[in-house]
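Hi everyone,

Forwarding the result from last night's run.
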Amino acid sequence: MGDWYFETAKSWDDLVAAHKKWVLDYNYQRHMAHEKREDGRHSPAEVLGWVTGKQFEPDYMYRAFSAMCETRTLTKAGYARFRDFLLYGERALAGKKALINIFQDTLALEYGEYPLAKYSVEWQPDDKHLLRVGNPRLYEHPYQSPQLELWPQEAVDWFVIIKAAAYGPRKRSKRTTRIVVMQPPLLAEEAP
């Protein structure tokens, strides 16, 4: 029945209106699946009327539906290696696994529920490799290192983004074949 309304739609607005009418009709009409209910609820709207959805924060939805999500272990200095770049996360989280979310041209480095840093990225034409990473934004979070800085920040050149050497080809390990021959114990024949 709904197919006829969809097929006769001449424009996008007609399709939207047909879909809206179909949803309302489907949810509020009596259904055979609910005919034997004793509480008098015979349509999906009556059966599920008490159920309401949960509205999630936009940041949570962003993380859930980001285009790429990978984990990286932070180095002793607090950097995560992603492709050919070392990106600063947090020194106090050395050895911990951080989450890298990439959505379009934004890379977010997170640990737990907190963002550590966000970076702007530019892709190479193959859409697989990063051309540039820039515009670092470091965030306040509960994982700050209690270690005081040895020098004032303006006295030392501190790099949040470091271009790392490209990965080289992996070495193939030689497979060694070992043959182990096991000889079962000889059964001695018993004399009668």
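The two ends are 91 Å apart (CA to CA).

Cheers,
N.
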